Amino acid sequence: MENIEIYPDVASLARAAAEAVVKLAAEAITARGRFSIGLSGGSTPRTLYALLASTPFAGRIDWANVHIFWGDERCVPPNHPDSNTRMARETWLDHVTIPASQVHRMRGELDPGPAAEEYEQLLRTFFTQAAGPRFDLLLLGMGDDGHTASLFPGTPALHENIRWTVANYVEKLKAWRITLTPPAINAAAHVRFLAAGESKAAVLHDVLRGPYLPEKYPSQLIRPTSGHLVWMVDTAASSLL
Ligand code: 6PG
Predict the structure, then answer these.
(1) Most buried residue, 5, 70, 96, 201, by CB count within 10 Å?
(2) Any idea what the Cα angle at residue 228 is, between residues 224 and 234, rounded to 5°?
């Protein structure tokens, strides 16, 4: 059974998510001296990222021991309006003291294939476990088509079971993406979906309560192997559960 937390609105959802980041960061840094977090793009996490850059949350995290990764990236330069890296930097990372060497972005400015291969090597160097990149926390969003990261319905990356990072052509967007693969995401210690708004209600019902159809609903592929999955949703998104 999934662990579903329902919040009245995006603001309270973001505050709860920020508290979870603080808690998991403190636990990881105490236990292993570092905290690795994978970020999602899109609009939902913006409120969370802005909270993490503000009082009191910014003062409750030991930034010197935080490592930032991404779950996916658009194939654009880091200063492009569509860049997930740019969004996270503008809302959060440029406002806290994480060492630049600990912000591990996917280089969307490269050709998709080489960018994915480069990120795969970066992950394999950072995470020594052979089983997969065991992020302390991986944040995910979900599109109203059921995609997560850049695992879109009907795309080749859904079937990748060896690589941790791949380039994925998304026909409906007529665009390449770089994305973590299902096994990479499922290797995380903690995975938290953040989903809010009426537009997610129908797909959230289908993902959580409907038949297992991962080709149509890629978010159903996310089942951490030995980690914890929590869905953090607002009342509007959960209205059909
Ligand atoms: C991206 C994200 C993507 C996002 C969903 C939900 O690169 O766009 O990683 O997977 O999380 O599209 O986006 P919203 O939060 O904007 O609904």
Answers:
(1) 70
(2) 105
Instruction: Indicate if the pLDDT at residue 204 is higher than 90.
Output: yes
187 vs 227: CA distance, rounded Å: 7
- Backbone phi, psi, residue 100, to 5°: -55, -35
Q: What residues does ligand 1 touch, defined as CB less than 6 Å away? A: 40-44, 71-72, 84, 141-143, 147-150
Contacts of 55 (CB under 8 A, 6+ apart): none
Strands 228-234 and 190-195: parallel
DSSP 103: B
**Ligand 1: residue whose CA is nearest its atom 13:** 42
pLDDT tens-digit map of 55-112:
999 999 999 999 999 999 999 999 999 999 999 999 999 999 999 999 999 999 999 9
Distance 141 CA to ligand 1 centre (A): 5
pTM of the model: 0.98
Atom of ligand 1 nearest to the CA of 141: 11
pLDDT digits (tens, 9 = 90+) for 22-47: 999 999 999 999 999 999 999 999 99
Q: What CA–CA distance (Å, rounded) separates 140 from 129?
A: 22
Confirm if 200 and 237 have CB atoms less than 8 A apart.
yes
Express each pLDDT in 135-170 by its tens digit.
999 999 999 999 999 999 999 999 999 999 999 999
